[in-house]
Specification:
heterodimer, A: mainly alpha, MetI-like fold, 25 helices, B: alpha+beta, 2 domains, 6-stranded mixed beta sheet, 5-stranded antiparallel beta sheet, 20 strands
Chain lengths: 551, 362
């Protein structure tokens, strides 16, 4: 199907794109941090207590988030893997909902639920006739940790429970028959076999929480800043670009090492044991302990979803009354001069950026998929990991890299809408690639040969076999790209001009303004964002071929 | 009937120092079903792919009714291939899979529909017309793959281990159905398998392959009764293969582990010089000796094992260094394991095969 020249031009285009969007910005950041060929900035940053404290805080909150998520997640993963209980599939699916939401939606949900004017505080106040909100979680480390657990919980369920479900229970039974106690079986057999999956899940959660931006920015307030938040503050407000560059390089090194860790253990998790079909490994809960585990899964899912439910409820209630003013103001209020754009314009911007992102990311994803193709060798493995690099680079890093890279050597794209589209597309195309590749790999040579033996020409094979099979993968990838663009916050915050305000930016701006009315608009806008994201991911779930394209 | 409908002529194929096919010649009459039988890696799939046009031979030709098709693309040969892993199109339902080949020929929608109905009833799956491929059972997929391959009326249908992953019970019912269907349609077919029972049940004659060579060709009973080489004898399931030497005294007398034995059915090719050979003793020619036969016509051995199977005892007896396998019916009272037994051999049904392959291949 691919002629040589086709492949050549595809590779050419891809290399240009990667050079422009990944390599060049990263080199620019590195160059900036060593400005004037000196390591002065590095010494300054590394001896400054503020920066060191930030690094320490970023690390320990990521470790704490990771360990807590694993602690709660592993028993839950066990119940999902080994027991049958009503609604299990739905419940498992629901754990993913927060993960696919833009971080701002989760943060706003958190405010709606536990904020000083949140639902729980209002209920407590009216129940006990209190003047002040009794629960004060905002701007504390607890808010950040809880939000991270809610956000990342599904990673443990997805990775660990999948591995656990495929682990043949007879391996454990064999150990018991050889005289091992239940505890010995767990510590000597089950745990070692699951360790690759646990490490894979842990390193992924660490990377995500280590680079956490929206959640920390909104829920941590002025008290807490991760490296990601510091980079943003240094670059956007203090204009300390070289220092921001140093922090970016430090953060990127750590995340890339951990992503490599993740990739390595993820592979091992899939390889290391007897895989048996899930059906054979599940049973009905019998003892009290089993039942408790299953029941706790219902409770966990309820807790995980509660911020999103609270977001909807709170956006409809103001001062104890049911109201639609939050929403109606979004569509009628044109007076917000500090925005330069109306809320409606922000929604339109978001949709437009989403569409443009799809238009750029989908072709890039298809070209990369076709180049990676069916077979695997070291060159393709290398290309694959380079292509996946944007997943390991945080959004703020990407935005910061673009900010300095495209504002030098006579190149000035900063402030343009193109730069936002390119940033979104760079963050989104790995998702397109990951949606297309597994589908592409189902188109085996023998499938083509089967069509050929039935009289199909090369053209027929492409239009009748390859394209229709690939089509769903492409659509799934497109929806992914759209959703990534829609929820993107960190890079856009650094790159946008006021007239390019998107929904997440608008939410952030509303939050920065005092008063119930602004809060209501932030909540309502978050609801709309949540709604669009949900529609997108329901579409993905429905369109996806069974068991293909998961991460 | 046309005796050389398809001619496969002097095919050679080498992959990176590995000879996949070595001077392979084969002719098929119209309507013949031929089975290619051999262990995995013997070259049978390569031969199919070359005939299909999916691989190019290094040398050789493929002809249909005397006309070479070696330069035709696979889709222009009008051959059918049923793949080992079936490769049904996952995005098309049952009827769209079957009609794919018809559409490629530009056959009208109306005719296509009729033909699909015809094939569905042929494979007895009319009710599955609109079913998704993912929702079919293993046996159903097999039959749909057959229907898809048959739909465009291929001039030659090739089936590459089509029973692949099915369990043995299902295989048996299915390959008998496949033979009936092919015979009813008069389809010329090559059926690749490594299971001799399957090969013999499906085909009119079999081709035994090993290491890229065709070793023997013939109807099942002929191959079974006159295996040309030790390899063929093993492929036919003979277990009692004993090394022997031709003596100088007589062209039919051999030095065997059982002493000097005269084999009446020995072929002439063994006659001119001392030759090493293999004695093939069919199970049915061995029996436990009863008291009323002459003392010099039985052999003394030790009973090693008796395994009850299919209503009989499978017996292993050791005579000197040689272990013989045979079947004994229930009526005979077997001595305990380790006890001496007497067996007699009917030498008239024993075959001698020369070990020197060149003697045969010339």
């Amino acid at each position: 199907m691919m002629t040589h020249s086709w492949k050549f031009w595809g590779a050419f285009l891809l290399i240009i794109f990667l050079a422009f969007t990944v390599v060049y910005p990263l080199i620019s950041i590195l160059n900036l941090s060593f400005r004037g060929n000196s390591n002065m900035v590095w010494i300054d940053v590394l001896t400054d207590n503020y920066y060191l404290d930030t690094l320490v805080f970023t690390t320990w909150q990521a470790i704490a988030s990771t360990l807590l998520t694993l602690l709660i997640g592993i028993p839950s993963a066990y119940a999902f893997a080994r027991y049958n209980f009503p609604g299990k599939r739905l419940l498992r699916g629901l754990t993913t909902v927060p993960f696919v939401m833009p971080p701002l939606v989760i943060a706003l949900g958190f405010i709606a639920l536990l904020g000083e004017k949140g639902i729980i505080n209002s209920l407590l106040q009216s129940m006990f006739n209190l003047d002040d909100a009794p629960l004060r979680l905002m701007n504390t480390i607890y808010a950040i940790l809880i939000a991270h657990i809610i956000y990342e919980f599904t990673i443990v369920v997805r990775i660990v429970s999948t591995a656990w479900a495929n682990l043949d229970p007879d391996i454990e039974n064999a150990a018991r028959m050889l005289g091992a106690s239940q505890w010995k079986v767990f510590s000597k057999i089950t745990l070692p076999l699951l360790l690759p999956a646990i490490i894979a899940a842990g390193s992924l959660i660490f990377v995500f929480t280590f680079t956490s931006f929206g959640v920390v920015l909104i829920l941590g307030g002025a008290n807490y800043a991760t490296l990601e938040v510091s980079i943003y503050t240094l670059a956007a407000h203090l204009l300390e670009l070289p220092a921001a560059g140093v922090l970016t390089v430090i953060q990127m090194t750590i995340t890339i090492v951990l992503m490599a860790f993740y990739a390595r253990y993820q592979q091992r998790a899939a390889l290391s044991f007897n895989l048996v079909p899930n059906k054979a490994t599940t049973m009905h809960p019998r003892g009290k302990f089993d039942k408790l585990l299953c029941v706790s899964n219902y409770i966990i899912v309820l807790i995980i979803l509660s911020p999103l439910v609270a977001l909807i409820v709170r956006s409809l209630i103001s001062d104890g009354h049911i109201t639609l003013t939050g929403f109606t103001n979004l569509f009628s209020n044109e007076r917000d001069s500090f925005f330069f754009v109306s809320p409606l314009q922000a929604i339109t911007n978001s949709l437009l950026f989403g569409a443009c992102t799809v238009a750029v990311a989908v072709p890039i994803g298809i070209i990369s998929g076709l180049l990676l193709g069916n077979s695997a060798n070291w060159r393709k493995a290398l290309l694959d990991s380079i292509l996946m690099l944007p997943l390991g680079i945080s959004a703020v890093t990407m935005g910061f890299g673009f900010l300095i890279a495209f504002n030098q050597w006579g190149l000035n794209l900063t402030g343009s809408w193109t730069i936002i589209v390119i940033a979104h597309a760079t963050l989104a195309y790995p998702f397109v690639l990951r949606s297309i590749l597994p589908v592409l790999r189902t188109i085996t040579p023998s499938l083509r040969e089967a069509a050929q033996m039935l009289g199909a020409s090369k053209g027929n094979i492409f239009t009748r076999i390859e394209l229709p099979i690939l089509w769903r993968g492409i659509v799934v990838g497109a929806v992914f790209a759209f959703a990534v663009s829609l929820g993107e916050f960190g890079a856009t915050l650094l790159l946008h001009r006021p007239e390019h305000t998107t929904m997440p930016i608008a939410i952030f701006r509303y939050l920065g303004q005092p008063g119930e009315s602004n809060l209501m608009q932030a909540l309502s806008m978050s609801c709309i964002l949540m709604f669009i994201s949900t529609v997108g991911f329901v579409a993905i779930e429905r369109l996806r071929f069974r068991n293909l394209g998961s991460f | 009937m046309n005796n050389d409908f398809i001619t496969i002529k002097a095919i050679n194929k080498t992959y990176e120092n590995h000879i996949a096919l070595n001077n392979v010649n084969l002719t098929l009459g119209e309507g013949d079903i031929v089975s290619l039988l051999g262990p995995s890696g013997c070259g049978k799939t390569t031969l199919l792919r070359i005939v299909a046009g999916l691989e190019t031979p290094d040398t050789g030709d493929i002809m249909i009714q005397g006309n070479s098709i070696a330069n035709l693309q696979p889709e222009a040969r009008k051959f059918g291939l049923m793949f080992q892993d079936l490769v049904l199109f996952p995005h098309l339902n049952v009827s769209d899979n079957i009609s794919f080949g018809l559409e490629m020929q530009g056959i009208s929608r109306q005719d296509t529909k009729g033909r699909v109905d015809e094939l569905l009833s042929l494979v007895n799956l009319t009710q599955l017309r609109e079913r998704k491929i993912q929702d079919l059972s293993g046996g159903e997929r097999q039959r749909i793959a057959l229907a898809r391959a048959l739909a465009p009326n291929p001039r030659l249908l090739m089936l590459d281990e089509p029973m692949g992953a099915l369990d043995s019970h299902l295989r048996q019912t299915l390959y008998i159905q496949i033979r009936d269907i092919l015979k009813n349609l008069g389809t010329t077919a090559i059926y690749v398998t490594h299971d001799r029972n399957e090969a013999f049940a499906v085909s009119d004659y079999s081709v035994i392959m090993n290491n890229g060579h065709i070793i023997q060709t013939g109807p099942p009973h002929e191959i079974y009764s006159k295996p040309k080489t030790k390899f063929v004898a093993q492929s036919m399931g003979f277990q009692n293969l004993v090394n022997v030497y031709l003596t100088m005294e007589s062209s039919k007398t051999f030095t065997t582990p059982f002493g000097l034995i005269t084999i009446p059915s020995t072929h002439n090719y063994l006659s001119d010089r001392e030759l090493e050979g293999t004695l093939v003793i069919p199970e049915f020619s061995i029996s436990l000796a009863t008291s009323d036969i002459a003392i010099d016509s039985y052999f003394e051995g030790i009973l090693l094992r008796k395994i009850f199977q299919d209503g009989n005892y499978k017996i292993q007896v050791r005579i000197g260094e040689t272990i013989l396998h045979f079947v004994s019916n229930l009526e005979i009272n077997l001595p305990p394991i380790g006890a001496p037994v007497q067996i007699s051999i009917d030498w008239s049904s024993v075959i001698v095969i020369p070990n020197d392959l060149k003697t045969i291949l010339g």
